[in-house]
Amino acid sequence: MSLASAWYRNARWLKLLRPLSMLVEQVARKRFTKRFVTSAENQLPVPVIIVGNISVGGTGKTPLTIALIELLRRHGWTPGVISRGYGANPAHYPYSVTSSSTANEGGDEPCLIVQRTGVPLYIDPNRVAAARQLLQHHACDVLISDDGLQHYALPRTIEIAVLDGTRGLGNGRCLPEGPLREPPERLQQVDLVVVNGELSPATRQQLTELGLLWYQMKLEAGKLYPLAGGDAVTADVWPHERHVDAVAGIGNPARFFHTLRELGFDPVEHPLADHASLSEETLGFASGLPLIMTEKDAVKCSQFNLANGWALRVDARLDAHIEQTLLTRLTSESAQPTGHNDGSETA
């Protein structure tokens, strides 16, 4: 049994790790207590929206970030995005991720966000440095931090915590006994708790015991895009056999494979670690079947010769309350953005 599997099965042997877990929890509580002590040099002239989580692994932050970019633009804002750029190896920091950046340079998730939206995006482990560099070169009036909930040097106007509806908080323990970076009550301090997908009974109980209100987002499968170029297709007119190889290097590969089955595919599952490196050799499966992968994996394959490779696009659909709360808070916390309108026009 892997450590991650043990977290969500609440394996008894995890109690052996409790002393380390209690130390992590103590440090997390101390850092959170000091979170409002932001030095003058770290202040930023625009509001900052944090999209993060308190658990390790994927919860759906990147699809939510993309949806927020589109939402803000519809209402007249000009967003920029900052990110740590996990797994990136740029020539320097801060680094501007563009549509021509490779995943090795900019990180898979930042590259995906830029390719989907064209938003100005800078990466740097120091998010404040990334923010200042972005604002120096782009006239943005709001920033979204893709991850960074625990990066307390970064000031924030709105905190959004994303949870996987199935996995929830696991056994509710901090690392390494459990999957949490901070104790569960940290969720009581954020502005919005967004649950990705349907809630399992265990997740619902966890959130209820914390006294939390939560709002849902759903990831909806879109078109399939050929990696070699050409027209995208919907699953109902898929031109090949339904038995496919499926690759997912994300935090919860099982969710991707489940989506494919819901679309009528019969996937041979190839789960990979989150942010896993890919090569033509590792994707050269002997089956000769069509290959479908996540968008995040596809950005790492732009130079590969995958004639029968496809990427499945996924879009986040947000609860209306999420949009209302976000826009109301932004309007009350800052001056009206340049070009702000009532939403009747698209920026």
Task: Provide a quick synopsis of the model.
With 347 residues, this protein is of the alpha/beta class. The protein contains ten helices and twelve strands. It starts with a helix and ends in a 14-residue tail after the last helix.
How many domains would you count in the coordinates? Answer: 2
Per DSSP E runs of 2 or more residues, the count of β-strands stands at: 12
At the first level of CATH, the class of the largest domain is: Alpha Beta
CATH architecture classification of the largest domain: 3-Layer(aba) Sandwich
- Name the assembly state: single chain
Q: Give the neighbour order of strands across the main sheet.
A: 3-4-2-5-1-6-7-8-12-11-9-10
What's the rounded overall pLDDT mean?
92
CATH topology of the largest domain: Rossmann fold
Uncertain stretches: 335-347
Structural class label: alpha/beta
Distance between the termini: 50 Å
- H/E order of the elements? HHEHEEHHEHEEEHEEHEEHEH
Q: Shape from CA axes? A: globular
Strand content: 15-25%
Instruction: Give a quick account of the main beta sheet: strands, pairing sense, barrel closure.
Output: 12 strands, mixed
* Portion in helices: 25-40%
Number of helices: 10
Radius of gyration: 20 Å
